[in-house]
Amino acid sequence: MAATKPQKVWNKGVVGEPKPPRAVETTARCTTTGCGAQPGGARRHPGWVLIEVVGSTEPKRYFCSWDCAAYGSALAELRVGDTR
Ligand SMILES: [Zn+2]
User: Fold this and answer.
1) Quick check: 23 and 51 in contact, CB under 8 A?
2) How far is the CA of 68 from the centre of ligand 1 (A)?
3) Whole-angstrom distance, CA of residue 66 vs CA of residue 48
4) Distance 52 CA to ligand 1 centre (A)
5) What range defines the domain where residue 55 resides?
6) Where are the stretches annotated Disordered (predicted)?
7) How many domains, in total, are found in the chain?
């Protein structure tokens, strides 16, 4: 499919397939054991991030990195006041 003129202008004449966007790590894709799990038990992870959003239906969760924590935080914030 040929690019339209406005697309070419916006794209500064670059042709070919676009590069895939930077991978965003999520709890679904993170392979770290225990990432996104609820805290509890004796296992503690120094340097991990605890996310708790007041009023969210999502429980507190531990994440292995700020990337994962950002994902968890966004998810929890989406579920504030969600009573379903
Ligand atoms: Zn993670």
Assistant:
1) no
2) 5
3) 8
4) 16
5) 26-84
6) 1-29
7) 1
